[in-house]
Amino acid sequence: MGIKMSKQQRTRILITALSGLIILLGALYTDRFKIAYLALALVWFIVAGIVIALGVRERRGQ
């Protein structure tokens, strides 16, 4: 059950996941802006999920 992806899509997903994790780590290590960081991480993962879903749908159409 593997989704066929190009190398470019794989690297894009990897970069997105890593940057999301960096935002989450920032949220863990700050006290003052923790809520803002968590909200930013949540929005980031939602946007990334939409972008990845659109990319997969675009590949299936071809």
Structural summary, described in words:
There is one protein chain. Helix 1 (7-29) packs antiparallel against helix 2 (34-61). Helices cover 82% and strands 0% of the residues. It has one domain (8-61). The chain is elongated and about 45 Å long. It contains 2 helices and no strands. By secondary structure, the chain is mainly α.
What's a concise summary of this model?
The chain has 62 residues and is mainly alpha-helical.
What are the SSEs and their pairings?
Blueprint: H1 7-29, H2 34-61
Helix pairs in contact: 1-2
Helical percent range?
over 70%
- Mean pLDDT level: 76
| Strand element count | 0
- The count of helical stretches stands at 2
- Estimate the global geometry from the Cα principal axes: elongated
Task: Please give the alpha-carbon distance between the first and last residues.
Answer: 19 Å
Low-confidence blocks of residues? none
Oligomer: single chain
In sequence order, what are the helices and strands, one letter per element?
HH
> What radius of gyration results from the CA coordinates?
14 Å
Which structural class do the helices and strands define? mainly alpha
Instruction: Tell me the count of domains.
Output: 1
